[in-house]
Structures are given as C-alpha cells and as structure tokens.
Design brief:
Layout (H helix, E strand, L loop, with lengths): L21 H7 L7 E5 L2 E5 L4 H20 L3 E4 L2 E4 L2 E3 L3 E4 L8 E3 L3 E7 L5 H14 L4 E8 L2 E8 L7 E6 L4 E3 L5 E3 L13
Parallel strand pairs: 4-7, 8-9
Antiparallel strand pairs: 1-2, 3-6, 4-5, 6-8, 9-10, 10-11, 12-13
Pfam families: Uma2 (PF05685)
GO molecular function: endonuclease activity
InterPro entries: Nuclease_put_TT1808, Restrct_endonuc-II-like, Uma2
Length: about 200
Amino acid sequence: MAAPAREPSFDILGTLDTPWTAQRALDLLPEHHGPKVEVFRGSVIVTPHAGFDHQAAERQLAFLLHQAARRAGMWAYPEVNIVAGDDLFIPDFVVLRRSGGGRITMPIMDAVLMGEIVSSGNRRKDVIDRPREYAAAGVPYFMRVDFRNRVPSLVLHELADGEYPPVVAAAAGGTFTMREPFPFEIDPGDLLDEQDEQN
C-alpha cells in the first residue's frame, strides 16, 4: 500500500539530508505569505520580509514597470518563482517575455530583466551574489534599487561579457530614464511612502 501523500510543511527543513532543488522545494514546502523561501546551490534560504521602505519601493516599481512593460508586450511581477536549473530565485521584481498567468514558476530564460532592492541585512546577496547568478543565466538586464540614508537610487545594468556594467543611474530628485528593454522613466524619490506633513 502506498504511503499517504505528505502535506507540504516547513517541518521537513530540518530533516531532509539530500541537496534541495527548486522542484523539491515546490513539492515539499507550502505556499505561504511569510518569508521568501529560495533554493540556491542545494540549500534552502529563508529571508524575512524587509522594512517598509523596501516594500513600498517594490510595490510602486513593480506596478509602474508593469505598465511600461505591457506597452512593449512584456509582463512585470513582484516576488515570483523563477527557476534556473535546480535553483529557485524570488527576485524582488522581474520582467518576463511572456505572461506567467496560471503558472507557479517561470524559467529564467523568459526573464528580460530581474531586479533586487538592496536590504541592509542582505547587501552582499542583492549587490554581488544575485547579479552574478542572473548574469550567468544570461538575463539581459539587471536593475538595483538602493537606499542610502533613505535616499533611493536606481541603476540599470546591461549584460556584457558575462557581467552587468551600469548603463543608467539616478538618485532621488533626478530622473531615471531607460530606453531598453522598454522605455521607462521615474524619479527614484517617488518610490518611498512619505506622509503628508498635514496628516
């Protein structure tokens, strides 16, 4: 008699003694609205949600990028499952060549642009590790949002010779204007939620 199907549970995180893969994580771990759960080089990485500046920038940028991307026949999403071989990435935002409608994951080969919002606790991951992996997978563009003393800046990098040199950059109060992979313009300062002084 076959064993009953196991309900997805985080309890398995401490018991599995073989390397993790994207498919294993999708099969064995539950869908949830808690921390990000990614798979990188055989290990599960659990990351709590970042602060409100990060979340505000992610919400605003994904929405505005989606509007611009749709005009160019592409789709933008915040925090979705992107599979690269056995790795499972959840970038802060991604622009895809085709819709992810009805899917749980999308292959990294469908990504035109992947983006990270730098968190103080994950700076190395957001600035060095992730861009390196995205470049190795051939993602044409990488976008990074950074906050220094709550002054947001936005940088677009374009893949060249396996690396991401910057091609467009602007900080709050300036205008970030890109032409590729589609036209998009924003003052990075608009990514933060600032309370009206009268309220």
